[in-house]
Fold this sequence. Notes:
This protein is an alpha+beta fold. It is built from two helices and six strands; from the N terminus they run βαβββββα. The protein has a single domain, classed as Thiol Ester Dehydrase, Chain A, CATH 3.10.129. Strands 1, 2, 3, 4, 5 and 6 form a six-stranded antiparallel sheet that branches. The chain is elongated.
Amino acid sequence: MRNKQFSVGVNECDDRGAIKNAVISDWFEVAAKGYLQECLVEFKHGNKTPEWQQQSLQFDYLHSGFAHSDVDLELSVTELARRSCTLGCRFYQAGKLMAVGSCVMVLVLARDGDVTVIPAATYDVLKSEMLGFLRIARS
Length: 139
């Protein structure tokens, strides 16, 4: 599981001062790609560079967040397949759950856009992350 904190900028809020939903989904995508890039073990496929891409996104917005304090994100792998993984997230502000979501991410070869199999070493890292999260959730 990874934790990340976001500071809320004035331009990220609507006229009421509430954080825009699009900002929360952008934060999730940025954090997800960064997290998965950290988990990506050496990958060579000729001179092609792999890149994580979001394939689907689902969010439930529970409470509005406001610019007065930072937003905390919890992020973890919740499902894993050979060509994709699902990440789950929870956003909190001042200890209050604001939003929960999930997305499916795939590893794409940047030059041709083909979805590729997650390399075995990276798969093992992601599997370990997922099992650690599941152990915490069941505790």
